[in-house]
């Protein structure tokens, strides 16, 4: 009887512990998905900051998905009013609630800040209170454990290494590789003079080729598998960008996308290691203005590092293109501890969203011609173009976590454009359909068809 009683007592104790554990889990879950969001919403409302109401579990994700579906349901006319199409939720809610508003990504609040002085504080992060938030699992698999995803001391060490790799002296060795890659692409174009060609795919291959050559001493064909895998992972990430994931469930139950992205991530790692081991073993008037500048500087010679730094007109065209279609449409930071931003008191762990695309299309900053392609707005530099609000132009971010490859990207664009315009006059094909979409970065939904004619 004593043994039976002891067993009964043990069972009751274990059952009580189990019930208590489940109760604590429920309380923690309820606090995260209901009490905390309602508390944050009330705190922001009391400061005059408005936004769409919180919905249990999914926040505003369903609204965003519906707005995006509606915006993408048909192509647009050939104009540069891309903001309302690519980020319809930010466009709509900024009209309804003002330029500083908040919305809900599930149970996570995001404060959207437009004011340029506040943006400087957030991105320069001098007090260390605005951190890069933890990235989504799919994004972690896409970018790995590198500069984009790491924080703290590890990020600092990686950034130091990257700064050295992208230093001006290092570019000198990269220029011949960039030139060779562009020459290969132009060689393929020779058979298509006077005909339509699809250049979006060509430019993707070119960028991949240049990265392969400069980073791995390889070629696009050798690294083709990696770039094809990356493309598949980008599609998985884009598909899941606004899907609701219940906190904690992802660790227990894996979706088909989870399983596929893990397999793709392993394939990328294996391919990169294989490549490293192998290496160890062995606009028409503006177009004319830019072309004239190129011919004046280089003639028919290949561009040089010293020469591309003097391409002022081309720099204006590039900056205006990056203003209208920035590679990154928004920047996120997570508040380390409760802090004051301007007149706002922001709760701990809240995310702050800097809407780059919205800033780039703000008529109060750029004028009523904000949706027109006018490179001459950058004739006297970024500060003059932004009316001394340099944080209103963020194609590569700002502050200590700005894009380390910014100069590399500018040089690649300048070399590519120089070599193309030395040889060809480019016009849009009648078959081109203007339909910019967001797939991690902004890209043409139906490709980019142009016609090339020898100069």
Physical arrangement of strands within the biggest beta sheet: 1-2-8-5-3
Strand content: 5-15%
Beta strands, count: 12
Mean pLDDT score:
85
Gross geometry: globular
Major sheet: 5 strands, mixed
Task: Kindly report the name of the CATH homologous superfamily of the domain at 31-136 and 286-418.
Answer: Cytochrome P450
Task: Summarize the amount of helix as a percent range.
Answer: 40-55%
Q: Architecture of the domain at 31-136 and 286-418 in CATH?
A: Orthogonal Bundle
What's the level 1 CATH class of the domain at 31-136 and 286-418?
Mainly Alpha
The Rg value, from CA coordinates, equals 25 Å
- Helix run count: 18
- End-to-end CA span: 102 Å
Order of helices and strands: HHHHEEHEHHHEHHHHHHEEEEHHHHEEEE
Q: How does the helix and strand content classify structurally?
A: alpha+beta
- CATH-defined topology of the domain at 31-136 and 286-418: Cytochrome p450
Return residue spans where pLDDT drops below 50 for at least 5 consecutive residues. none
InterPro entries: Cyt_P450 (IPR001128), Cyt_P450_CS (IPR017972), Cyt_P450_E_grp-IV (IPR002403), Cyt_P450_sf (IPR036396), Cytochrome_P450_Monooxygen (IPR050665)
Protein name: Cytochrome P450 family protein
Keywords: Heme, Iron, Membrane, Metal-binding, Monooxygenase, Oxidoreductase, Transmembrane, Transmembrane helix
Family: Belongs to the cytochrome P450 family.
